[in-house]
Every structure is written in C-alpha cells, then in structure tokens.
Write a structure and sequence with these properties.
By secondary structure, the chain is an alpha+beta fold. It has 10 helices and 8 strands. A 6-stranded antiparallel sheet has the order 3-2-1-4-8-5. Strands 6-7 form a two-stranded antiparallel ribbon. α2 crosses α5 and α4 runs antiparallel to α5.
Length: 248
Amino acid sequence: MEFKIDRKEVLRYLQTAKDIEDKNINRLLAESISEIKELINFRYLYHKFPIEHTKEGVKIKNTTLTLKGRSIKKHLQNSAEIYLMAATLGAQVDKKISFYEKISVTKSMIFDACATTAIEEGCDRVEAEIKEKALKEGNDDITFRYSPGYGDLGIDIQKEFLRILKAPKKIGLTASSYNMLLPTKSVTAIIGVIDKKTAAEEHSIKQEQKIENSKDGDLEFEKRHCKNCLLYEDCELRRKGIYCGAKG
C-alpha cells in the first residue's frame, strides 16, 4: 500500500497554519514525509462477527467479549453484525520517533504527526475495503470506525480484542499492561454493518455529508471521532481543537 501522507493533515495534527512559511519547518516536514514512507510496514486484518444486544452490553457472538457502555450501544444500535479491525504502521516507525525524541524535539513532533496521519490514512482505506464488502453483501452501509477508549467504551478490552483477531501472531500487534497498543502507531476499531437505514439515519447521513463537504478538516475529524462521545459537551480538549482520537 502506497501512502500519500497529506501535508495539510500533518499540519493540522501539529496545530499549525496550513500556509506556514517557516523554511525550517517546511524542510523538516518534507524530510519526514519522505522518510516515513520508507519505514512504514502497514499490516492490517479484520473479521466479521454477529452481535447480540443485551443488558450487559453488546455481546460479540462466538467470542468472550462484550462491549460495555452507552456510547458503543448507541453506535451499534442498528447493527446485527460488526467488523473488528486492527492496523499498524510497524515497529520501525516507533523506533524512529524515539530516536528523534533524543536529538530534536521539533523533528520528533513533526515525525509523530506524519505517523498519525499515515495510520489514519491506512485505516481509512481499510474502512473503505470493509464498506465495499458490506455493500456487495447487500447491506445499506457501515458505521464509522469506533475505537476502544472512545466515549465510555473501556480501553481495557484491548488485549482480548487483539486475542480474538489473533493480531499478535498475524500482524505483530500487542497491548501493554496499561492497554496501550504496541507498536504505538496502531489502531483497533469496531465498525457496525447497517442492514437497512431508518428515516432518522437518512437525515443524519445527509447532515454528515454537509460536514464532509466542508473545507474545514477539523469539522470532519470531529464528526467522525467525537459525535458519539458522552464527554462531547464538556470536553476541554475538543474546545481547544485537540482530538484525543488523533493519537490512535
């Protein structure tokens, strides 16, 4: 998979103006984009599971995992099946970020932002692949991807999530004792399969399409990653234009 790594996205993660004129920053940005493309070893996998909505949460059938929390229940309220997906840029990207942290704070921040942009780009492509499969099977649509740690869905499910997908063996993706993904530039996510849209969903989709057509990339990111979070109204990070999901 060849990565584009959109310069504008990198600058957005850096909270920097899109038309920045600093020659040093622009040089480091160009160097980092070129360098990270050579290091990325993008690997991913996904699998479809039937689910059951219970009082305890959303039970993933044929597994030991139940997704608990109001946010994920709302996210999957119109789904009878889901995809669990996992993706990673590989260990070399992490090593290079650590290396730059020791010699240049500026370069490490820029390289980290390039890595975040890359993993999001990769996940977007995986999501598109899943959507294509779902539509071919006669479904109407899929939900956007929803990761452990969003809303009130606990991050403590990471290890079981990875075990179910056999991610440690298949793509080398594990979780630390603190449930942080290793390599760190990785993502796990849940995507619901929508069999048939309701009238309310159609209205919601039209509203989302208006946001998608907006020139403001921050609105698009917020729409995808924040709208179902129970902390949405009170989130100080969001008010400052910082999105926790960006570190996925």
